[in-house]
Design goal:
The complex is a heterodimer of chains A (about 190) and B (about 400).
Chain A (H helix, E strand, L loop, with lengths): L1 H57 L6 H16 L3 H22 L3 H5 L1 H36 L3 H7 L13 H4 L9
Chain B lengths: L1 H34 L4 H22 L2 H6 L2 E3 L6 H14 L6 E5 L6 E4 L7 E5 H6 L2 H16 L2 H27 L4 H5 L5 H44 L2 H13 L37 H9 L6 H12 L8 H5 L20 H17 L3 E4 L5 E4 L7 E3 L6 E3 L4
Parallel strand pairs in B: 2-4
Antiparallel strand pairs in B: 1-2, 3-4, 5-6, 7-8
Helix pairs in contact in B: 1-2, 1-7, 1-9, 2-7, 4-6, 6-9, 6-10, 7-9, 9-10, 10-11, 11-12
The chains are: A mainly alpha (about 190), B alpha+beta (about 400).
Chain lengths: ~190, ~400
């Protein structure tokens, strides 16, 4: 009788622990999803700002056809990207193309004097920052999740209920890692 | 990062429990002293009631009272885009559920604070002087520090700690005054009743003198620790400790004093608004760590993580004890320090600095209800809200503007 009670007690404790770990994992996964949604919002915002930027810049930068086309193409690549991997790569390419555009814009004083361009520049630079800060938070959430999924004894529960590792959003190219430099001092 | 919030919750609990015990002990001693033998539990009940009422009052008046007291004006969508962007950036980095409300205080002394017991109701306020003196990276560092206070639930912690310390101070004060005027039935009625009463009276007196001091020291110690942690969090959010370091230096170097600050509101600001610059020596009764020390720790960081801040802290302070909870260090991802954003130093004659200052001033004028008339000659007339005359003459070209017409 006592042995039965002890076994029963152990089973209750075990089930309680499994429920706790399971709920913890669900919470972490939801946090990762939420964090990704924030990254996504900012990526979309950047995507939407570009036509406006092109319209403003066009008149001043006739000689920079290539740079402008690169941005347009990179934006199209983002729109056409099917898989998640392809999308992340395309987004990286768009960031780099925008960075080059702003670097070139430095040598156009007329453009830099336009208030419209200045406010767009702040808007895009900030969006670029927001992408990287949201990405920073996303990666942190992913690492939290992956730690819980991989570490013993949580990994047993994770295995039973099919919790997998989440994917980091890394920017591989060293040139892309830098947000476009925006210089207000000159 | 999550661990840090959890560690913070545990610490808040221990602190509140410890201070509550102190409060109960004081209540017991007061009860025994003034109510006669056996009135201790009644004294405890009175002490807890005082604390409860004070907590309720502080809770009810909530976050708004602080903003009202400092004369802060709310920044609406579309106003001061750079400030709004920086706040949004740090909200994302901290993973807060909602962008805090943004307020600007019309004061040339650079400073900032955050309020809000929960991240959902949080607000950050900066002075117009801060916006005019800092560049984007520095502003980002300051905002990151304030957002860190919100994320780490520091405001809730300091509210609890402050109310507890306040209740203890008030009770001890009342007790000491009562004694001064010859209260204390135990003494007058039962003189020579035995040593027991004498010992209780002695304990009561000692508690009345010591308890408020201990309570306030705990409060200040907790406040300083939260400042270090907010600095560490800010560095890990921005990945750029130099931004906050430079901002702290600029804020400390300003000779101006914040007009709306007092000792009750002082712990909330990024640097103590009441201390004179340069004289900020660390002692047990300051709410903030000395600025040059905070700056040196931030500058000694090789990477931007809690671990790096902890290393730098020990290096600068020369001790072996760090400031970040060990559990928070264990689970963190290492991160490099990024470069400056390229927003250069704010120069005195910089047109962008002028533009920024103009934006801030325009915002303040608008928030105060000033009327703005753009004269065709290029002059902008700014009229106060109580400007009663029906017409105003442009001082430059002499054109008369009809104020009722539009």
């Amino acid at each position: 009788m006592i042995a039965l009670l002890i076994v029963l007690g152990l089973v209750v404790i075990l089930v309680g622990w499994v429920i706790g770990v399971y709920n913890g994992l669900v919470g972490l996964r939801n946090r990762v999803k939420e964090a990704w949604a924030q990254v996504d919002v900012q990526l979309k915002r950047r995507f939407d700002l570009i036509p406006n930027l092109m319209e403003t810049v066009k008149g001043y930068m006739n000689h920079e056809r290539e740079t402008l086309e690169a941005v347009t193409q990179a934006r199209a690549a983002v729109a056409g990207a099917g898989s998640m991997d392809a999308r992340m790569q395309a987004e990286g390419g768009l960031g780099a193309a925008l960075g080059r555009l702003f670097a070139v814009a430095e040598s156009y004083p007329d453009l830099k004097a336009s208030t419209n361009f200045l406010s767009l520049q702040e808007e895009l630079a900030s969006t670029e920052n927001k992408i990287s800060f949201a990405r920073q938070f996303y990666n942190e959430s992913v690492m939290n999740m992956n730690n819980k999924v991989q570490m013993f004894p949580g990994n047993i529960v994770a295995g039973i209920f099919n919790f997998g590792n989440e994917k980091f959003f890394e920017v591989d190219d060293a040139a892309q890692r830098e947000a476009p430099k925006v210089d207000f001092s000159r | 990062m999550w661990e840090q919030i959890a560690a913070n919750r545990r610490k808040s609990f221990v602190l509140v429990a410890g201070a509550a015990l102190l409060l109960a002990a004081l209540g017991w001693a007061l009860g025994e002293y003034f109510g006669g033998q056996g009135a201790g539990p009644g004294g405890v009940a009175v002490a807890l009631a005082v604390w409860f009422v004070m907590t309720m009052v502080a809770w009810r008046q909530g976050d708004q009272v602080f903003l009202t007291m400092s004369g802060a004006k709310k920044v609406k969508d579309g106003d001061l885009p750079q400030l709004r962007n920086v706040v949004e950036e740090m909200t994302l980095a901290a993973g807060l559920p909602r962008v805090p409300d943004i307020y600007v205080i019309d004061d040339e002394a650079p400073n900032a604070f955050a309020t809000g017991r929960r991240p959902e109701t949080a607000a950050v306020a900066v002075t117009s002087g801060l916006l005019k003196t800092l560049n984007r990276d520095e502003l980002q560092g300051v905002i990151a520090h304030e957002i860190a206070h919100v994320r780490n639930r520091d405001i809730l912690l300091m509210l609890f700690a402050g109310v507890l310390a306040g209740a203890i101070v008030i009770l001890a004060e009342v007790g000491l005054r009562g004694m001064w005027f010859g209260g204390g039935r135990s003494r007058s009625r039962r003189d020579g009743d035995g040593g027991g009463q004498g010992i209780i009276a002695l304990i009561a007196v000692v508690l009345m003198i010591v308890a408020p001091i201990i309570a306030q020291l705990i409060y200040f110690a907790v406040s300083r620790k939260r400042e270090y942690l907010a600095d560490a969090s800010a560095a890990s959010f921005t990945r750029y400790p130099e931004g906050l370091a430079a901002a702290l230096e600029k804020i400390a170097a300003s000779p101006r004093k914040l007009a709306s600050a007092n000792s009750a509101t002082a712990p909330m600001y990024i640097i103590n608004p009441l201390k004179r610059a340069g004289k900020a020596a660390a002692n047990a009764t300051s709410t903030h760590p000395p600025i040059d020390e905070r700056v040196r720790i931030l500058r000694a960081m090789g990477r931007s993580s809690f671990a790096a801040y902890d290393e730098a802290f020990r290096q600068v302070k020369g001790g072996r004890r760090g400031v970040v909870p060990g559990s928070a260090l264990a689970e963190e991802k290492e991160a490099a320090v990024r470069g400056a954003s390229g927003d250069g130093p704010v120069l005195r004659d910089d047109p962008l600095r002028r533009e920024r200052a103009r934006q801030v001033d325009d915002f303040i004028y608008r928030a105060d209800g000033w009327q703005r008339i753009e004269c065709p000659c290029g002059t902008v007339l700014k009229l106060p809200a109580d400007f009663a005359a029906p017409r105003a003459r442009c001082p430059r070209c002499g054109r008369v503007h009809n104020l009722q017409g539009d």
